[in-house]
Amino acid sequence: MTQLGFHYDMSTCVGCRVCQIACKDKNNLKVGVLYRQVYDMESGVYPNPRIDHLSMGCNHCADPKCVKNCPTGALYKREQDGIVLHDKNKCIGCKLCLWSCPYGVPQYKEDEGIIGKCDLCADLLAKGEEPACVTACITRSLHVGEIETLRKQYGNIADVKGLPGSEMTRPSLCITTKKK
Amino acid sequence: MFSEEWPLMMFTLLSQLAVGTYIILLFIRFSLMKNDVHLSVRLTNPGLKVVGPIMALALVLSVFHLGTPLGAYRAVLNLASSWLSREILTAGGFFVFWFLSYSTFKQGKPGVALGIVTALLGLAAVFSNASVHAMSVRPAWMDVNTYLAFYGTTFAMGCVGATSLVAFELKGSAVPAPVGKILKTVAIIAGTAVVVPLIYTPVFVSTLNAGSTAAHESAAMISGSYLMPLVIRALLSLAGAVLLYSVLKNPQSILPVNQALGALMLIAAGEFIGRYVFYATAVSVFTGRTLI
Amino acid sequence: MGNLIEQAKNYAMSRRSFLGLTAGTLATVSLSGCGLTKVSNQQAEELAKKEGKWITAACWHNCGGRCMNKAYVVDGVVVRQKTDDTHPDTPDFPQQRGCARGRSQRQQVFGADRIKYPMKRKNWAPGGGKKELRGKDEWVRISWDEALDSVSGEIKRIREKYGNSSIFVTGGSEMPRTLGLYGGHSTHWGTTSWGSWRWGPAKFGMQEGYFEHSINDRLDLRNSQLVVLWGGNPAWSAGGNPTYNYLQAKKAGAKFIIIDPIYTDTAETLEAQWVPIHPGTDHAMLLGMAHTLLKDDAPPTNPLIDWDFLYRCTVGFDADHMPQGADPKDNLKDYVLGTFDGLPKTPEWAAEICGIEPNTIRDIALQIAKTKRVALFTAWAASRINNSDSWPQMFMSFGAMTGHMGQPGRMTGVSCHFGSGNGGPGLVKPGGNGLPAIKNPVTDSINDNEMWEAILSGKYTAGYNKKKDINIQLIYHGYSSVLQTRSAMNKGIEAHRKVEFVVCHSHFLTTNAKYADIILPATTEWEREGGFGTGNREILIHYTRVTPPLFETKHDQWMAIEIGKRLGLKAEDIYPISEKQQVFNQLAGATVIKEDGSGMETLLTITAADIAEMGIQGKPQQGRITLKEFRDKGMYQVERKTGDKFGYIGYEKFRQNPAANPLKTESGKLEIHSKALAALIKNYGFTEIKPFPSYNKATEGYEDTFKDWKAKVKGEYPLQVVNPHYFRRSHGIFDNIPQLREAFPNPVFVSAKDAGERGIKTGDTVLLKSRHGKTLRTAQVTQRLMPGVVGLPHGAWVDMDEKNGVDKAGADNILTGPIATGQGIGGWNTCNIQVEKWKGAALIPDVKWPQRII
Ligand SMILES: Nc1nc2c(c(=O)[nH]1)N[C@H]1C(S)=C(S)[C@@H](COP(=O)(O)OP(=O)(O)OC[C@H]3O[C@@H](n4cnc5c(=O)[nH]c(N)nc54)[C@H](O)[C@@H]3O)O[C@H]1N2
Ligand SMILES: Nc1nc2c(c(=O)[nH]1)N[C@H]1C(S)=C(S)[C@@H](COP(=O)(O)OP(=O)(O)OC[C@H]3O[C@@H](n4cnc5c(=O)[nH]c(N)nc54)[C@H](O)[C@@H]3O)O[C@H]1N2
Ligand code: SF4
Ligand code: SF4
Ligand code: SF4
Ligand code: SF4
Ligand code: SF4
Ligand SMILES: [Mo]
Predict the structure, then answer these.
(1) Residue C800 — φ and ψ, nearest 5°?
(2) DSSP string for B215-250
(3) Element (H, E) at C675
(4) Which terminus of chain B has a lower count of CB atoms within 10 Å, N or C?
(5) What is the model's pLDDT at position C23?
(6) pTM value?
(7) How far apart are the first and last CA of chain A?
(8) Ligand 5 mean position to A134 CA, how many Å?
(9) Does B68 touch chain A (CB under 8 A)?
(10) Cβ atoms of C169 and C185 closer than 8 Å
């Protein structure tokens, strides 16, 4: 079984959030619901400050706690490509996945009484296109693909300051960090 | 975010009250049987009757926590790996078996086997309930503290609940000798159930302090803005336990209903605050911020 | 129908699925205004499944970029958007990817808060009615007939009573045509984007950086070993590819130095050496750097100054190289050395003003002088500074001293907006629209900084020692948001409440619209024939209609014509050719660079069939690609690769042979001494400068934060505020889009030091007060700001609390003053303020504010 995932280049990301907005647009998400969110982390002290950004969608983890804990099986890992999908017809909105994802990915939709999450734009992938967030990035800091291939190309770091330890769920994510 | 958890929090408290009460009443019932079957039935049946409705209420509340209540039945579809599925099954099972066991009790039958199965289901429900929290990504929950807290609540509330119910049945009449001895044990159980989690708290906080950022934040809250509530919680619970013991330490005498109820109130209040803090201080391992 | 707005309100309140609204809105159009019919999520998904059509959609704002934007339309409903995917993406031939704002364009066009019908202020009556209620009155829907009659009626009445100059037009090209034919109208002018780069540089020989560029193109930037930016934050304010282009230069090995009061995302991403500076003091820093070079320059052992370039290509650097008739004393070298004023402009002298360590000033000067290929860039922000008319000349002079001009990897000039890091003439351009110009018989034109006071006082500056009377009684807002985007907003509001009539063509209840009497609902570009996206020299975007006009919105041209008719004018005089014809003319006239780079050639092949289909006048023509291909793709992009013929090196020929390729200056050279510049500035009638770049203290600049400069005692307004152009908006545009409000909370950035001294924590609501107004914002305490400087994002829609006169939105121009200097500079980055914890109610996040639905 192959496993799809994301590469994210933290060293070139400028925090412009077009990935977040492209995702909202693609998935018609209301305010308050974000399948991909960009975070900012300031550190350092004047005159040597530092600003880091973190663009987070679902990491389609190899060992997804969300799937494990979901009582209905609404969340499941797709055999052929390891995408963690959500079956809205099974979901009962118990929000346990919100408690279970170390990356704050599943989003509760008040008006629908269920959650929703990044599906890696499976529909676009099926059409041979890339996810909305990936093709939107103005600095080309996001890439999608077979995670092992991505790791070979970009290295195998998924633990950066501000992120929970990757041992929790083994995210299908590799991050290019800054040299400094 | 926390407001959404109210129904859930009440579910945990009420279900634990129900399970605890059932188990303690069963303990009283079985212990009494050797000497006086009739008395055991007379003193525990009415109490056992109350357990069902409490559990029912708890289950109904838990459904309120769902965004799609009508789908509640689907919650048992992932027994293979989801503690929530297991919890729903065991909690539901406890309720069903309560009904079966109680119907046999009603006919004055001992129903030992049924009783034990029900009790075990109850304990399993509490365990699953604790596990649902322990399997989350909130360090403050991913600790044996969760189990101690939940079982502590179960037995503390169970003891005062059961005692009060028995007190009602005694209607101020002198406590029969065997009953007195048993109730004394109950008081001791209650004390233990209150004290153990309290003793563990400092250990818990220090482990949190040694942990991740999120764990730190939780620890900071517990020993900061939530310290006062916790102290009050401790005092209330201890007061409850002491009161219960003072009421039950010398058998024979009359068992004052209002004091038993007083103990129940104190302990319930203590557990309530404790549980509130339990939810309020849980911080997810993911602490993303947005500044721009 | 009446309950439509009510329904719309509910949408806003319940924040229903936007697609629902999109669909609903379009449904109203197809059902000719029967009300919003919410599309359920299921229906939405149905739509999403259906096959639709991608249409190239306009993104037409003054936003700092120019990108590809496409809308996916299914059954007339816009289901989603995407950006450029017309060709594979490579650094040399990149896709023109859009930003978060462009990606939210459908949220704007179909916003629940669109102005849907002509609207009238409840207490308005011809003559003004209760004028003091402007900005707080209720709104009443009226018919187009009533609206057009009222507007034309007031134009007629006021013109008869006060004359044509009493009609003040703030923007838009449409009403000036009508009013031009009707006797004319007064207007306003300013340096807007450019600051002191607007008019002065033409006199001393450098380009302003928007229409024309002095810097080399983006592929050549990769030849630079060192790139130095005085201001400029492309990551935030040059949407599209500029940051990506800079990253290529970094990849190629360039080192970056960024001089900016803010540690920007650009600085972080380019791993730049950050040099914090007091706003408005870059000139002082450069003088200190020039002093360093003059002191240490020792050819041949330690050559730091390119004397050959100075002597061949410039005039005015030293006494021996002065232009005809200039006082030899007025040269830069002696000024820097302090020969005549006894004040050497040493790094120490500069440090006291700009706040940069003398050694850092020396070090940067030497790095630039000793590095072979350097790009010296500045963004207009550093010149949106009062009294900064000599700064661009100083910038040019330092570039000339170091000789970083006219060669590969060597350049000096403005790098900003969509010209960021990519200079050179357009490689593909649209033709003219064929509309004959209409002259405005009225000559009264008021500087932006004076216009509101002019309305209140009846006087304005019309030149050197020249004040003129004016009695403005009608404010006509077309395509602009001047009340929001020009200085002294409080006076602006007062002025709006004084005149007899205010009208605004608008999409939303923007600031201009809010303070008007009548609002005419305008169509957006998505609801029009189509048009062109230009700016980025390598592309020409051709967008087309996405949806029929929503509700009762109309094109500004239609309004100009209808009002004109009521004024007794002929439609064909105002717009002799149709909107469609205008688009066609631009298509037919479009040109593209020849393969060999030798000149331009026709872009489009247009057939008789095309012309017939469009139903306009024109003749068939041969071009590089067919009209159909152009339409289908939506863009023509010139493919670039290193070593191609489409590159650009500013001043290349001039440097090789100045005599044969003179600049358009009096001397034909770069003028470090420019009589013309000094004369130009003097003639505006505000302030004066020397012909050579001497430092001028800025009004409300750093020095003015002190009560006593010598003793360094701070005054009542001890902080400087700058207005970074902000992700959420293009000036005012997009400020109302919920998903952008969610993404960009628009805090005020306060340095950790200043915050600490004031007991301010992140999340606190703070009061910002200047000599000119008060506004509130939520504080974001940061280590990324130079202490003493506050960052208030530009363009938030003012939301005045009428009870206490304090704005709640953090509108930048509530703080700026009516200060006209030099060439009429919009000196917004020079403003002194104080910041304090707000004792009143805390602000709720902007995203939770109710939408302005009327
Ligand atoms: N304090 C401070 N002030 C500043 C700046 C600063 O940094 N600080 N920046 C300055 C700069 S650089 C600039 S360029 C100016 C920009 O100043 P403006 O050009 O006034 O700002 P915009 O918001 O772009 O104004 C365009 C308006 O036209 C409307 N509009 C768009 N399309 C149409 C149309 O087809 N028809 C009609 N009728 N209206 C339309 C938009 O909704 C918007 O309200 O602001 C300047 N003001
Ligand atoms: N997101 C977004 N992008 C935009 C716009 C927008 O409204 N929003 N507007 C567009 C328009 S019309 C224009 S004109 C451009 C303007 O683009 P710029 O002229 O570059 O203006 P800013 O981006 O506001 O400022 C860039 C940097 O200059 C710094 N700065 C301010 N004052 C000084 C100074 O005195 N000295 C130095 N060294 N640095 C200083 C600021 O801290 C900021 O980091 O942006 C365009 N891009
Ligand atoms: S689009 Fe790219 S650069 Fe912008 S925030 Fe997302 S990842 Fe970062
Ligand atoms: S990131 Fe979160 S939601 Fe996504 S698979 Fe991993 S655990 Fe599940
Ligand atoms: S909310 Fe839905 S998806 Fe999440 S755990 Fe509950 S049932 Fe599963
Ligand atoms: S892959 Fe699709 S759903 Fe996931 S974050 Fe990107 S755009 Fe959103
Ligand atoms: S930068 Fe300008 S043109 Fe490009 S997408 Fe953003 S708003 Fe549109
Ligand atoms: Mo601008």
Answers:
(1) -70, 130
(2) HHHHHHHHTTTTHHHHHHHHHHHHHHHHHHHHHHSS
(3) helix C675-684
(4) N
(5) 37
(6) 0.95
(7) 37
(8) 27
(9) yes
(10) yes
